[in-house]
Specification:
Elements lengths: L4 E2 L6 E2 L4 E6 L3 E7 L6 E3 L9 E2 L2 E3 L5 E3 L1 H4 L1 H4 L4 E2 L22 E3 L8 E4 L2 E3 L1 H20 L5 E6 L5 H13 L3 E7 H8 L9 E9 L4 E9 L2 E10 L4 H16 L2 H6 L1 H18 L4 E6 L2 E6 H26 L8 E5 L6 H11 L12 H13 L10 E2 L4 E5 L3 E6 L4 E2 L1 E7 L9 E7 L9 E8 L12 E7 L5 E7 L5 E6 L7 H13 L1 H31 L5 H16 L6 H32 L4
Parallel strand pairs: 3-13, 13-14, 15-20
Antiparallel strand pairs: 1-2, 3-4, 4-5, 4-6, 7-8, 7-9, 10-11, 11-12, 15-16, 16-17, 18-19, 21-24, 22-23, 22-26, 25-28, 26-27, 28-29, 29-30
Helix pairs in contact: 3-4, 5-11, 6-8, 6-9, 9-10, 13-14, 13-15, 14-15
The protein binds adenosine monophosphate (AMP).
Length: about 625
């Protein structure tokens, strides 16, 4: 019997599993849900009211693992066992990691595997394992607060993450005991948190400006019919609020001649950094910051701070400009600018971004939480709780049928919005052909044998007609439930046949991803194979039509014409399987050249005969 859990905090029944939204950030991570009663997205807070879990993992000498604030306290005292910024290493090879020495811990290239590992004492950890510790901690936090097991999650990643990085993120969730229902782009989640893209009829182009502690991203998204498409991304993986803190520290250092002390006294330097961050945050609210620290009067005005921040802000605006250019858009084409990341609280940042795009920015949602909140909204949609939202989906893989030579003929391309329909006409290859086999495949490869077969049926009862005369319309319809209905109808006689399939059935996201990857890897081979198969098919058809022509009209050719044609046919036929595409095309042209003159003669004769019998 299934258990019904009760949320102690709210007293509400929770018959269904809550799917959490997780934003695993470079600096901080968060977990959010849709509140079962208010139906509003909320981030899960600890008793101390903190919502952010620093993305830091510490390994104690006895092997005990701590995550978050507890781990953060070891950054200075035990840097070799304290791992931060793991997100920067996800799915990366040693060669991808620009400067491994900038991490306080040891990044290892063991030469055996492509992906980096981190060595703590004598143990090697992959970034996936390290991230999984953070996921586990977020999962526990959620379970503790919700008083119910949490096993399903939606996890966000930067829009520029490649397949390996996305897979690594998924694996990290899995390792933490989470079933990762979907990997969502961070800008998409941010957009959802602002309610943008929730209506199926919505058409918008938006910019998501994300300035965090150590990274900057700008993404341009096009939203249409519930589908989010990333038009372009730009950014700097080493630019953020930390640079503002450093700029303040440098200005104080210069003013009070602190350079020597900072370079020798680590703790003093760390305290200065923390004070600089505090100053920066206060300057988001006030015009000046003043404090006394170990006898030094540390002060800064907002005006002076804006001067220090200007070069950094300029860099981000240049990236916005490049992202727009890549998307082929002018600033005026952007309908909304969504602000993400703690550093977008800096007034000078907001002003510069708003000036560049020529409109006020969207900043009402807490910029630290906006991505996690959006992930929770996506989770809720997947859970089917949000009945107002039509869960519009896209077909992850192309759908088509097998044509001559085992080629894939795509009717509905991948990423098509559903519901959708498509149709195409086909004809018979042989005179009097009474049936036609319709084989439905899914996948991106050019040959159906490399794709996944979904269904097959036979359209029978086509009335006897010469080859090429019947018109068989094959139509694909994917309805809102994701069911594919394939119909074949011979238009002249009205004979029809149809079949229903569920393309997604039994296919995991990972399998979809691997099928896509396959198609990219084989794209060049596939293109060549397709060209060869097409040439072979054309050659076979030409051989057949020329032979049937000879048998019907042989008497109208002289013996040398007949011998030459038969020689060309036999030559082409003998090399069908061995010749290259170019050789086949050459032989096809040759046979066509030989037969053209008498084919024209026969045609003229046929017309003359037809005219003779006609009375005007
Ligand atoms: P995130 O990576 O999104 O958590 O962003 C953290 C960054 O935002 C850090 O550099 C913080 O110092 C910065 N930040 C947080 N609050 C403020 C604020 N009120 N004003 C300026 N920067 C802030």
């Amino acid at each position: 019997m299934g258990k019904i859990s009760i949320n102690i905090a709210t007293g509400s029944l929770q018959p269904k599993q809550t799917i959490v939204g997780i934003d695993l950030g470079t600096t901080n991570s968060l977990v959010a849900i849709i509140h079962p009663d208010s139906r509003q997205p909320i981030v899960l807070k600890e008793v101390d009211q903190t919502t952010l879990v620093p993305s830091i993992v510490h390994f104690g000498q006895e092997g005990q693992v701590s995550v978050g604030n507890e781990a953060k306290s070891f950054l200075v005292s035990d840097p070799e066992r304290t791992v931060f910024s793991v997100k920067r290493l996800m799915g990366k090879s040693y060669a991808d990691v620009e400067d491994a020495s900038s991490f306080g811990y040891e990044v290892i290239d063991d030469g055996l595997e492509n992906l980096v590992k981190i060595k703590v004492d004598d143990t090697f950890y992959t970034p996936i394992e390290l991230s999984s510790f953070i996921h586990k901690s977020l999962k526990q936090r959620a379970e503790h607060l919700l008083k119910t097991p949490v096993t399903q999650a939606v996890i966000t990643v930067p829009a520029y993450f490649n397949d390996t990085q996305r897979q690594a993120t998924r694996d990290a969730g899995k390792l933490a005991g989470l079933d990762v229902l979907r990997i969502v782009n961070e800008p998409t989640a941010a957009s959802l948190a602002y309610g943008i893209g929730l209506r199926p009829d919505e058409e918008k182009t938006i910019a998501v400006y994300d300035l965090g502690g150590g990274t900057f991203d700008i993404s341009i998204l096009q939203i249409s019919g519930g589908v989010f498409e990333v038009l372009s991304t730009h950014g700097d993986t080493y630019l953020g609020g930390d640079d503002l803190d450093k700029a303040i520290v440098n200005s104080w250092q210069a003013e009070h001649a602190l350079g020597a002390r900072v370079s020798t006294d680590k703790a003093f330097g760390q305290s200065l950094r923390l004070l600089a961050e505090q100053a920066k945050k206060e300057l988001s609210e006030r015009d000046r910051f003043d404090t006394d620290f170990e006898g030094y009067k540390l002060r800064i005005t907002r005006e002076a701070f804006n001067g220090l921040a200007a070069p950094l802000i300029d860099k981000t605006i240049k990236a916005c400009d490049m992202a727009l250019r890549d998307a082929g858009l002018a600033p005026g084409a952007i309908d909304a600018v969504v602000m993400v990341g703690g550093s977008t609280r800096v007034p000078a940042v907001k002003e510069a971004v708003s000036r560049f795009f020529g409109k006020p920015v969207s900043d009402e949602v807490n910029p630290d939480e906006v991505v996690a909140l959006g992930a929770a909204i996506q989770a809720d949609i997947l859970a089917g709780n949000n009945k107002d939202v039509l869960l519009l989906d896209i077909t992850p893989l192309s759908l088509g049928i097998e044509t001559m030579g085992g080629l894939m003929d795509v009717l509905i391309p991948r990423n098509a919005k559903i519901p959708t329909r498509a149709g195409r006409q086909y004809t018979t290859q042989k005179d009097g052909q009474s049936g036609m086999r319709i084989s439905v495949f899914q996948g991106e490869r050019d040959l159906v044998k490399d794709n996944r077969k979904l269904a097959e049926f036979n359209l029978a009862g086509i009335p006897g007609m010469p080859a090429g005369l019947p018109k068989v319309e094959v139509s694909f319809l994917i309805n809102a439930d994701g069911i594919l209905v394939v119909k074949a109808k011979e238009l002249r006689s009205g004979v029809e046949q149809s079949i229903e399939v569920k393309p997604q059935y039994g296919l995991t996201d990972a399998e979809v991803e691997s099928m896509l990857l396959d198609s990219i890897q084989h794209a060049k081979d596939d293109m060549q194979t397709r060209a060869l198969v097409e040439a072979q098919t054309e050659a076979r058809q030409l051989i057949e039509t020329t032979r049937s022509f000879l048998s019907k009209n042989g008497s109208m050719l002289d013996s040398s014409e007949r011998a030459e044609t038969e020689g060309a046919i036999n030559g082409l036929e003998s090399r069908l399987e061995t010749a290259t595409k170019d050789e086949l095309q050459h032989a096809i042209t040759h046979l066509n050249d030989i037969s053209r003159p008498y084919a024209e003669r026969v045609m003229d004769e046929a017309i003359r005969t037809a005219m003779k019998g006609r009375k005007i």
